[in-house]
Design goal:
With about 425 residues, the chain is α/β, with parallel strands linked by helices. It has 2 domains: about 5-290, 3-Layer(aba) Sandwich (Rossmann fold); about 300-410, 3-Layer(aba) Sandwich (NADH Oxidase), CATH 3.40.109.10. About 35% of the residues lie in helices and about 20% in strands. It has helices spanning about 5-10, 20-25, 40-50, 85-95, 110-115, 130-145, 170-175, 180-190, 220-240, 270-290, 300-310, 350-370, 425-430; strands at about 30-35, 55-60, 100-105, 120-125, 150-155, 155-165, 250-255, 260-265, 320-325, 330-335, 375-385, 385-395. The chain has an 8-stranded mixed β-sheet with strand order 3-2-1-4-5-6-7-8, sandwiched between helices. Helix 3 packs parallel to helix 4 (about 85-95) and helix 11 (about 300-310) crosses helix 12 (about 350-370). It is elongated and about 85 Å long.
Length: about 425
């Protein structure tokens, strides 16, 4: 049995917080959303369920595996599919009557006017590092008198700013003109987050790479952004509620349970923001130097991939005292040279640490092999001149199940903190 769609029934649970008249107003409104990835896709879903009846959506990208943690349209079923096609189908599944105009080539200087034609609101879903076209779209919104919202997922929080016709513009607030692209990133980030609530819990700064245009993002922050954009869009579109437009900014951080609505009368040009920008430029240069290199997946045979994982095995003084040679398609000869460790002060008692490292390497090799459905057999071949040799075979075995520790190989670390002195319970002793 196929149910018939009825707009009033579909969005009836909005009524109460939204009046019936306002719901019909939303049905008649058109919103342009640039970007269907992280925040853009979430914004589209939220605004569709709010009952907005018409959208212009734009994105030239396709879904990939790295989108899974945060993007509304990302799934195994949608990998390699165009984001606009996927999101359009999702919207039509919610509201078959929706009016959609799709810009599958994205937004560029040549189609900005078509993208913004007859829209009541622009919602920024561009990737953080897309600066040039973002500036042009916001500038055109100001010229056409179109309200615009930008919301950024920062850590486990949301930072957002609203730009209303006749008020402070995007450029007046962020002060991007005349700066190199890298400094524009800094200005944009500092303008969004004057309070910087997120900085205290960024556990791995090397993952923030402005120069490489990569940064971490969480689904929690995405959902917070879509929530505030939905609320602010409703206020703008139906004309109810106070809209705190730029130079007001809004920040909420769920991780730290902190919220701030603040005022920057001069935007990023104020004295405190100007000082932060100078500090930010230096921090940007430092982050760029220390950014984690992109770990491209190893290409090659299963054995080469297994060895790439196994290199993370622990060893004394991190000396990695092992070498290997291939002696067949699935066979390796491992070498652990005790004599070669003579000058290593950590290699005491006739090379015991090196031999222990050999054991660590073997176990890591076994765990890594399980990821590829391979078992491991090894044989000690003897020692010549301090060179301990082992034969290792990594053969396909349908009975092998991936070891629970396999995903921990590369992120293993040494914990040098003192142990807690907690007595064992009777139950633990019995085990």
């Amino acid at each position: 049995m196929t149910a018939e769609f009825n707009y009033q029934e579909a969005f009836s649970r909005n009524i109460g917080w939204i009046s019936e008249r306002e719901q019909e107003q939303l049905r008649c409104k058109k919103i342009a959303i640039a970007g269907m990835g992280g925040v853009g896709g979430a914004h589209l879903m939220t605004l569709t369920r709010l009952g907005v009846g018409s959208f212009h959506i734009a994105d030239l990208d396709r879904f990939e595996l790295a989108n899974m943690n945060r993007q509304a349209g990302a799934s195994m079923a949608t990998l390699c599919r165009e984001k606009t096609d996927v999101m359009a189908a999702m919207v039509r599944d919610i509201n078959p009557e929706v009016d959609l105009k799709i810009f599958e080539e994205g937004v560029d200087e040549g189609n900005i006017d078509a993208f913004l034609a007859e829209v009541d609101l622009f919602v920024d879903g561009f990737d953080f590092f897309v600066i040039d076209i973002r500036r042009k779209v916001f500038a055109r919104c100001a010229e056409l008198g179109i309200p615009a919202i930008t919301a950024a997922p920062i850590g486990f929080g949301a930072a957002y700013i609203i730009f209303m016709p006749g008020r402070m513009t995007f450029e007046q607030y962020f002060r991007l003109d005349g700066h190199a692209e890298e400094r524009q990133y800094v200005n944009f980030a500092l303008g969004l987050t004057p309070k910087g609530f997120h900085r205290s819990y960024l556990v791995d700064p090397s993952r923030l790479d402005f120069a490489g245009k990569r940064s971490p993002s969480t689904s929690a922050a995405i959902q917070l952004c879509s929530g505030v954009v939905g609320a602010e869009a409703m206020k703008i579109l139906v004309g109810r509620g106070t809209v705190y437009a730029a130079p007001w900014y809004n920040q909420f951080d769920a991780f730290r349970a902190r919220w701030k609505r603040g005022l920057l009368p001069l935007g990023n040009n104020g004295p405190l923001q100007a000082l932060k920008r100078l500090i930010g430029y230096k921090a940007f240069a430092r982050l760029s130097r220390n950014a984690r290199p992109y770990d491209a997946p190893v290409q090659g045979t299963d054995i080469e991939k297994i060895l790439d994982f196994a290199r993370w095995a622990p060893s004394g003084d991190n000396s990695q005292p092992w070498r290997y040679e291939k002696s067949g398609e699935d066979r390796l000869i491992l070498h652990f040279d005790v004599e070669g460790q003579d000058e290593n002060i950590y290699d005491y008692h006739n090379g015991q640490p090196t031999l222990l490292s050999g054991g660590f390497f073997l176990e890591t090799l076994r765990v890594a092999a399980s990821r590829f459905g391979r078992g491991m057999q090894w044989e000690y071949l003897g020692c010549e001149g301090g060179d301990h040799r082992l034969s290792v075979e990594l053969t396909q075995d349908s009975s092998v199940v991936e070891d629970d520790l396999s995903t921990w190989i590369a992120i293993r670390s040494v914990d040098r903190r003192p142990y807690l002195t907690i007595p064992l319970t009777d139950a633990q002793k019995a085990e």
